[in-house]
């Protein structure tokens, strides 16, 4: 079993998927400024997962175009949703290879990139990733409401079954 914080990330990813269920390609590329397009959000979260868990932690880059399409600080884009989902799936599968190995010691450690130690611990990076997903879940739901989507899911979902907190998990 993965570390409980990793399980929380996986639960959050599931909520992300649930948040975007049924979004069409046409709606995903609409940008209601100043908010981002939904397709950009999917690419952006893939970009961050790749930056943290694939590039920094494993030293590889699987989808280099994410840096330009959806990297932090880059101009807004409206990439095809299908492409962003493909990138997200590729990146998260590779990220999970690293995340499956995370221990308490790993969470307390700091990654070293090009001889420089990253200021945030792996645990802090993992928390930032989780909270970043929740930010974009909220943003995506606002976009969907503005697009007239109805019957949107309620959050937080079935955490008591899918990612419960137990005292044993903290050990």
CATH superfamily: dinb family like domain
Distance between the termini: 13 Å
- Alpha carbon gyration radius: 16 Å
Mean pLDDT: 94
Strand-residue proportion: under 5%
**How does the overall form come out from the CA principal axes?**
globular
User: What is the succession of H and E elements?
Assistant: HHHHHHEEHHH
Arrangement of strands in the largest sheet: 1-2
As a percent range, the share of helical residues equals: 55-70%
Total strands: the figure is: 2
Question: What do these coordinates show?
Answer:
By secondary structure, the protein is an all-alpha fold. The protein has one domain (4-163): Four Helix Bundle (Hemerythrin (Met), subunit A), CATH 1.20.120. It is 60% helix and 2% strand. It has helices spanning 4-19, 25-28, 38-58, 66-70, 81-99, 104-108, 122-146, 159-162, 167-170, and strands spanning 112-113, 116-117. The chain has a two-stranded antiparallel sheet. It is globular. The mean pLDDT is 94.
